[in-house]
Amino acid sequence: MAKNYEEMAAQILNLVGGKDNVTRTYHCITRLRFNLKDKNLVDNDGIKAVKGVAGLQWSGDQLQVIIGQDVGDVYEALCRIGGFSKEAAIDENLDGGKKKFTINRIFEDMAAILLPVIPALAGAGMIKGLITIMTSYLGFDSASALIQVMTMAGDCAFYFLPFLVAWSASNRFKTNTAMALSLAGVLLYPTMTAGNTSGADPLSLFGLPIPFPRYFGSTIPIILTVLVLSFVYKWVNEHVHKNLRIVFVPMIVLLIMTPLTLGVIGPLANYISKGLVALFNFLYGLSPIIAGAIIGGTRLFVVMTGMHLSLSTICLGNLAEYGYDWLLPMHTMGTLALFGACLGVWIKARNSENKQIGASTAISSFIGITEPGIYGVFLKFRNAMIATVLGGAIGGAIVGLFGGRATAFVNSCILSLPVFMTDNFWCVCVGIAVSAAAAFATVMVLGIGDEKAE
């Protein structure tokens, strides 16, 4: 049955204290966000009870109502009912105000920068997976025009990743996008790529060595470059007369940032990237089974903090350094365990609304959209949480033990199977099946306790 978004929006608006209590409302991928005059007017329990609401949380004085994939439709209805000015969806948590430099801030920035880029990487990754199937199993000639064109489509987002990250980082750090893209071009300039390919000795600029690291497919070098650019551009812009800015500000910024990027920021960031990749691979080497169990079992907790997007830099680093990644298959085990738990809630629940929640979140989790399942099932039912952690840990351990790998960056879901088609593809399939089955079975055995969830 079609959902009544008008009724849902009206209930939420009434429970947040009415339109007169709202100073601003907008939304992200899964949540309605309200800036309110008086938070004491909000009926938290009432909002949680609204059909279609998966939960709520406060971020400072901002109320976030978790809707899931229907959030855009609810927001449209909310704006019509309340007479609010409609705003474009955002991709990250913009709470405003000046933030202190903390570890959490680093993770927040990394997540916000990488989130808009991921669709391009996921799409390209799926194409790379299809190429593997076509050339390895279906007899397609790797030298054919079709495969060459598909290869260009699959490789472009990864090879020119610094351009995509530069665009996103410039938005995050609120600096000039054209300058950010220009500096990404500096990192991928033919002189740099040719020097890396040939293993050439570093250039020397007034005694400053300029080495030739591999910047294609990298993320951290351009993120740090754009961060520094945000300060340099602002400073230069303030010290150049406004009548001369259009020409001299970009010129001065490029003259400062180009040698700084190539001689200092880029090499330093490259060492950081390699160090992080080496650290994770060292830990993986100590015990792939334990690593798999921890990563698979804690996947959803990591998603809740937003750190899963920050960890994508490790995945991309592995792909750039070794041509494969082992984190993605383990992450996928946690996602499929959530699918199994949601499926169990659908079957086991006695309450009709809980059955609907279980069914809808099972579908979304199966295709890699985990947030509705996290807030609608994982956090709502303790046994479902236990089941998901257990299923993800078992599946992750299997993948770690037998060496499941990914050949491209994709979303952690069943649709990403083509990129896991390496020599040990079978263990990823077994891990997926075991993760989902173990979580499902655990929910069926332990139950969900409908009477306690009401």
Individual helix count = 21
What does the oligomeric state look like here? single chain
How large is the share of residues in beta strands? Answer: 5-15%
Indicate how many domains the architecture comprises.
Answer: 3
Task: Report the C-alpha radius of gyration, rounded.
Answer: 24 Å
Can you give me a brief rundown of this structure?
By secondary structure, the protein is an alpha+beta fold. It contains 21 helices and 6 strands.
Describe the structure.
The relative contact order is 0.10. It is built from 21 helices and six strands. The chain is α+β, with helices and mostly antiparallel strands and 454 residues long. The protein folds into three domains: 5-90, 2-Layer Sandwich (Gyrase A, domain 2); 160-284, no CATH class; 287-453, no CATH class. Helix 1 packs across helix 3 (71-82), helix 12 (288-297) crosses helix 16 (327-348) and helix 19 runs antiparallel to helix 20. The protein is globular, with a radius of gyration of 24 Å. The protein has helices at residues 5-15, 44-49, 71-82, 103-114, 118-136, 145-159, 161-172, 177-187, 190-198, 220-239, 245-286, 288-297, 299-305, 307-310, 312-322, 327-348, 352-366, 371-378, 382-402, 425-446, 450-453, and strands at residues 22-27, 31-36, 55-59, 62-66, 203-205, 208-210. Residues 92-98 have low confidence and may be disordered. The longest helix has 42 residues, at 245-286.
